[in-house]
């Protein structure tokens, strides 16, 4: 699997999804093209999916928010006759390298989370209308929706058959949403996850696995009714028209990727990628009308989209590069001005969408299993949303005082009000709250520095960066850090970093990713699943998996 | 000592499984029974329920003399639970448990797989009765009406057989599935039967004969492979069901044969030699051979769909775990494990039909379908002999296996009966040449007038050569209740 995976798509290229817009209601139909797999060697039968299907879905959800703000309710359903969705394609999983499986699961979970975020952030609600078999990842799609309707035809069911069938977990969000979101009783959940054929009809309602069942003959009508009611009751403000998410300007080269505001340099011999974010190239728009007119061209939106794509590209296509270095270039004041327009217009739908998108992109960075470092050089613009990078990364290094022959503006860090609640992490705390978990008063104190360009000694003193080095030490310290990092075991790094990044309380989101990382990825390594005789390898051959019965 | 050959009538449910001593299962079945009777009573038109029908009832599972014939009102038919005699020391005939003792209880690890197979099989049994519910009203003779009812009550008994297994071996889940078998119903929008062919209409008697010839033969193949099951109660149940199934196919084969007979006799009597002189032939009140071919095409292909995907994980799992075997498993000369064997499977690549060798384990469905095709060809040959003898130049053919398919590799392409791939437009334009059109259906429907006088037959069908239970030609097989 060496082909480059592209995370950019648009509706004209969709092969697996169809959408009908009907005022405040969008009908989203899953119609997976069997022959449309991202890789060779499997067919996407029975609406099963691979990363390619999910990339389109992520695009659907994203565009729904920007291009179709008039939509208040999205109804997800299947365009296939007897099946809603059979889940992740097993042959794809069986044939995939471990790293691909992990990235696939991570991305699908990030996408499922965007369903819930759409409701929480924008009041765009997802409901799921299940007809036919809805199994494994298919049920996880349903679980990501906030309301599940199931037809009561005495055949259609919801199921998480992974344990009995494949010896892996419905762990990519499935188990967690069953207990934490649907609040299914644990013993019933235990039964549910042990039976291949799942649960149908009224029992599925009794067990809280779905919200409603209806006879087949009235099902479509009831779904339409429910969608109408939810749209009518929605608190989402009416917006007549969205903005178009135009294609990114992007070019690939052997040693990097160039976007309009983001530059990715690949330093393969040092197993490192450098992402340089360029600050705004124009003044902030005067008001939200101007901002809306500029649409996807606005720096705030363009930069978020490009950064998002760059991260996904590195995650999936550059797996050998274990260290990602973040740099910025530009005028911190300009970054703050662009952010300020949006912060000051939180009740404008588009301002809200762009800020919420930044929240998601930053979470994506939190969730990236590479060593992350911020290098704060002179001439950089770590301010507002870009300052968040400093606390998303594992360590940060900042230039202290003037450097010989360097006439760029002195390195500074500038906080904005945005750093105090606009971009929470998966644990629902801000990055600053998470950083100063033991000294919450520090967060309060930092508020008095909002808007102040903090030079390295102050930033170090305030705990906003790891190290400040002057001209004499800088080069060596940074080099030593990078060399040391490159020498550690990548597995130990991934584990250590993930443990350290998410201090503080658990949320459903942190539990989903934590359990995915810990349990599913452990099982994905174990011979009982992926060994020559493991269930995942043997799936489809008719021969059962052979298990080592020792409990570990 | 339990009598396992003769049917015991000491409970409401005739059986040879010692039901009177198995209080728990007896109670469960008695609880299910009223729902079943309601289902039956709501289904078959009332005047037939009150009629006396000359039916055979199983009285033993001894292959010789297992049934006796008598007049009975259908709702009083002794539906029972009958298992073929146990084979002493039976071993599992295939898969990874090959040679181990057959299971008398459900192995926990295969419970769900077994339950699913039994539910799917069970779902077909009442399905066909539902499809055929109104045919009695247009029966071409009392003989045929009796055959219809015989098939119906036996399908009802097959439902009982599957329900018994569910109730006895699958606990509360099994009981729920048993109840759901009475909830789903053929063609229902709310809860259709599980398999496509059992939701299609059986609009006329020629369809009924084609159905019993082709679709019941799928049933036969499924039962044959379940009869190989390492789960012994399922094996024994299916073995006994097969004796009844044979009669259903007999009804189909002779029914189609007699339809052909009436047609060629009428053609010869009127000097028509061209089988395509359709209007003239139809004017004689018989069904022209090309239309019979179209009906054959339809029912044959719907039946092929019942074999599922050519390459199937479920089928592979079922075989390997010793749950479901192949047709005539014991007579196949191989290792019965298929770990390394391959089997040729048709597929479509770049617009061409070709065969590829795939692991034989995954091609179990394909193999069963191939066996079915051979089995189904036999009767077609006999029908052609009838035609040949009459001097009419016409030959019925089984269409290419890719023709008119909804399931499997051929479902995405249009293929004509000779196996040529067509464009979607051509298919739209030409399908009426190969499948019954509305006009064909209307014509056949116009012939479907009841003929209830003993010994008399509707114009479009010839009398049978011999009567049921060797009864004379004018025997009153059904004493109609005229309200
Ligand atoms: Fe049957
Ligand atoms: Fe039958």
TrEMBL record, chain A:
<dbReference type="InterPro" id="IPR029045">
    <property type="entry name" value="ClpP/crotonase-like_dom_sf"/>
</dbReference>
<dbReference type="InterPro" id="IPR001753">
    <property type="entry name" value="Enoyl-CoA_hydra/iso"/>
</dbReference>
<dbReference type="GO" id="GO:0016829">
    <property type="term" value="F:lyase activity"/>
</dbReference>
<dbReference type="Pfam" id="PF00378">
    <property type="entry name" value="ECH_1"/>
</dbReference>
<dbReference type="GO" id="GO:0006635">
    <property type="term" value="P:fatty acid beta-oxidation"/>
</dbReference>
<dbReference type="InterPro" id="IPR017633">
    <property type="entry name" value="Benz-CoA_dihydrodiol_lyase"/>
</dbReference>
<protein>
    <submittedName>
        <fullName>2,3-dihydro-2,3-dihydroxybenzoyl-CoA ring cleavage enzyme</fullName>
    </submittedName>
</protein>
From TrEMBL, chain B:
<dbReference type="InterPro" id="IPR009078">
    <property type="entry name" value="Ferritin-like_SF"/>
</dbReference>
<dbReference type="InterPro" id="IPR017635">
    <property type="entry name" value="Benzoyl_CoA_Oase_BoxB"/>
</dbReference>
<dbReference type="GO" id="GO:0016491">
    <property type="term" value="F:oxidoreductase activity"/>
</dbReference>
<dbReference type="InterPro" id="IPR052703">
    <property type="entry name" value="Aromatic_CoA_ox/epox"/>
</dbReference>
<dbReference type="InterPro" id="IPR012348">
    <property type="entry name" value="RNR-like"/>
</dbReference>
<protein>
    <submittedName>
        <fullName>Benzoyl-CoA oxygenase subunit B</fullName>
    </submittedName>
</protein>
<dbReference type="GO" id="GO:0005829">
    <property type="term" value="C:cytosol"/>
</dbReference>
<dbReference type="GO" id="GO:0010124">
    <property type="term" value="P:phenylacetate catabolic process"/>
</dbReference>
